[in-house]
Design goal:
Elements lengths: L7 E7 L3 E3 L2 E14 L2 E15 L2 E6 L3 H31 L1
Antiparallel strand pairs: 1-3, 2-3, 3-4, 4-5
């Protein structure tokens, strides 16, 4: 059995460039890969755009709204769980 020495890996890759006139746009993405013996997990996200106009090159970061909303929903869920436990503990302690 081959053992993979790389369990965590963060890669930034460029996609296929699109050129219109003298403007070329190349999308970039990041992938976090986590491997374990029975499988693995990959999380991809948009990273940036590389815009080339003639001799000028500009890097434009991409704001990942989906990721921001996911983190916000996870935080809101955690808050509701914590508040539920607090109210449950107060209710049980007030009944004694």
């Amino acid at each position: 059995m081959k053992e993979d020495s790389q369990k965590f890996e963060l890669q930034t890759k460029s996609g296929e460039s699109v050129t219109v006139g003298d403007v070329s746009v190349t999308p970039r993405s990041q992938a976090l890969t986590i491997r374990w013996p029975q499988g693995g997990w990959v999380w991809n996200r948009p990273h940036s755009l590389i815009v080339q106009r003639g001799e000028e090159t500009e890097h434009i970061p991409v704001l990942d709204i989906t990721r921001i909303l996911q983190v916000g929903l996870y935080a809101l869920s955690a808050l509701f769980v914590i508040l539920s436990f607090v109210f449950m503990i107060r209710k049980v302690s007030s009944q004694k």
